């Protein structure tokens, strides 16, 4: 098979080199973007009379029929033709004859691949934003369904203070809100046209890149042709934002894994999102959550592959850059699948109030409120902390929760304790008192929920 660049070569490419350098086995997924960009480019060449209008029209028709073949799975990709760009160009020439050879006027594969990757990344950003919203909606619905449930809040995974389950869930809403914003902020940086940079320096042909940008929905043109063909920052940012999504998902999944262990038993994940053991008949394992947690690793890895790939590369295009594709393709697949499965899984979660109630009795989570009670009666917080510390020790030794100590026992630690102490020791009362902005009181959480709904639905 003769190469598009074969003119100055006397010897054939080594077959092993052919397969070593080929990328079509993975970059063929850029085909729809490649054709979309080529159609806009051909129309521009015709409009600017760089090639005859009728040739441009023939090229566009040819590309459209190749697109159909690809969509129908009839197109045969050939790795001897290296990549998606050369495969499509070769097919075009086969289809419409010599005038297909005019498509690559005022264009290089360097600005072509940069354009395809920007179109692809823009589409992934839109998909990911949409998937984040679906996941946020599922979180909001879950929080709203369980507004009355108080759970232990943790620090160091030790019981700390009671909180509303909905408050805990809405913490994740906030994380994904930031993730969404990061992708929204990235979009305009991606939405910039490199086509027209050609190999690196621009072109003497009277091109109209503004027209191409409008056809492809790009808002701006890349300002510098050398930067246009060698910038992969947008892919690194895409991977970086993706790592944060995966990090947040891994935390969410970790909570589900812990909460669904019978030792906690706060929740049960639906059968459809768990698997059994081949040996232990009793097991119901949170494999989906574990896999999402595990998949965060490969996305972090891709970010570092890209950073390492780009480090120290001299301007402008270097073939190393072909190695960006598998990293970003797998990043997008992993993030999109993980978000989608997590949104579905949330809907399958059942909350076990009895187990949560039992857990609220453990861990002496009323201690801070007891100290605050004494503060309310004029004791300094440090002294109150020390008094309540001694009470907790006493309760541990007597194997009782704080609320089961008698008033007499309370008074033996401080005469300031009175009967009203028992009314403030209920988890819901403790939660209700935390009415500071962003706090866990039901009125704060209801407000947060309304706000979340307003911006998401
Ligand atoms: N397959 C190549 C890539 O992904 C396309 C650009 C090739 N350019 C070149 N000068 N060899 O990077």
Keywords:
two-stranded parallel sheet, two-stranded antiparallel ribbon, 457 residues, 19 helices, 5% strand, binds arginine, single chain, 6 strands, 3 domains, mainly alpha
Task: Provide a descriptive summary of the structure in words.
It contains 19 helices and 6 strands. The protein is mostly helical and 457 residues long. The protein folds into 3 domains: 6-105, Fumarase C, Chain B, domain 1, CATH 1.10.275; 111-358, Fumarase/aspartase (Central domain) (Fumarase C, Chain A, domain 2); 360-456, Fumarase/aspartase (C-terminal domain) (Ribonucleotide Reductase Protein R1, domain 1, Orthogonal Bundle), CATH 1.10.40. A two-stranded antiparallel ribbon has the order 1-2. Strands 3-4 form a two-stranded parallel sheet. Strands 5-6 form a two-stranded antiparallel ribbon. Strand 1 (150-155) and strand 2 (158-164) form a beta hairpin. Helix 3 packs across helix 6 (109-145). The longest helix is centred in the N-terminal third of the chain and has 37 residues, at 109-145. The chain is elongated and about 100 Å long. The two termini are 55 Å apart. The structure holds arginine. The site of arginine has 10 residues, from helix 6.
